[in-house]
Write a structure and sequence with these properties.
The chain contains five helices and four strands. It is α+β, with helices and mostly antiparallel strands. A four-stranded antiparallel beta sheet has the order 1-2-4-3. Strand 1 and strand 2 form a beta hairpin. Helix 3 crosses helix 4 and helix 3 crosses helix 5. It is globular. It starts with 33 loop residues before the first helix and ends with a helix.
C-alpha cells in the first residue's frame, strides 16, 4: 500500500494544463463535510487536484457487493463509480474529468476539477444507500462497456 497522500497524485509536470495552471491558483476550499461522504475521505493535492479515497479493508458495503455477486474490491468500486460518473457526465456535459489510481488496499478516484469531484463524492455516497441503487450503477457501468 502506498502512503495515502500518493494516491491520485502526480509530479507537477504530469498534470493536465488547465486554464488556471501554471498561473497561481487560489487555495481551493473543501466544502463537502467529512460526515457527508464517510467512510470515503478527501486528500488535496494543492494546487492541482483532489483525491477521493476508500480503504478497502474497512469492508464498507462488502455484504451488498457479495449479494450482487462481487467482492467489494477496489475494482468493484471502480465499476460502481464508473456508473455514477456516467450519470454525472450526462447531467454536467463533462468528459474525462475523473481518473482512477486504486490498488487492492485503497480505492481512489481523483480529478483536477475540484468542485466536480466533491459533487461526485456526494453522489457516490448516495449511490451506496442500498443494494438496488448499487446494482443500477454497476449495470450502467457494464452497459457502457458493451
Amino acid at each position: 500500500m502506498k502512503d495515502l497522500c500518493q494516491y491520485g497524485n502526480r509530479r507537477d509536470d504530469e498534470w493536465e494544463i488547465l486554464p488556471w495552471i501554471p498561473d497561481p491558483r487560489p487555495p481551493f476550499k473543501i466544502w463537502v463535510k467529512p460526515e457527508q461522504i464517510a467512510p470515503f475521505f478527501l486528500i488535496p493535492h494543492h494546487p492541482y487536484a483532489i483525491s477521493l479515497l476508500l480503504k478497502i479493508n474497512d469492508g464498507f458495503r462488502t455484504e451488498e457487493f457479495r449479494r450482487l455477486g462481487l467482492t467489494g474490491s477496489s475494482g468493484d468500486w471502480e465499476r460502481l463509480v464508473r456508473g455514477v460518473i456516467q450519470e454525472f457526465e450526462e447531467g454536467n456535459s463533462g468528459e474525462d474529468l475523473f481518473h482512477f489510481d486504486s490498488d487492492e488496499d485503497v480505492f481512489c478516484v481523483y480529478s483536477q476539477y475540484i468542485d466536480d469531484l466533491m459533487m461526485l463524492a456526494k453522489m457516490i455516497r448516495a449511490a451506496c444507500a442500498d443494494e438496488k441503487t448499487m446494482g443500477m450503477y454497476l449495470n450502467m457501468s457494464e452497459a457502457a462497456k458493451a
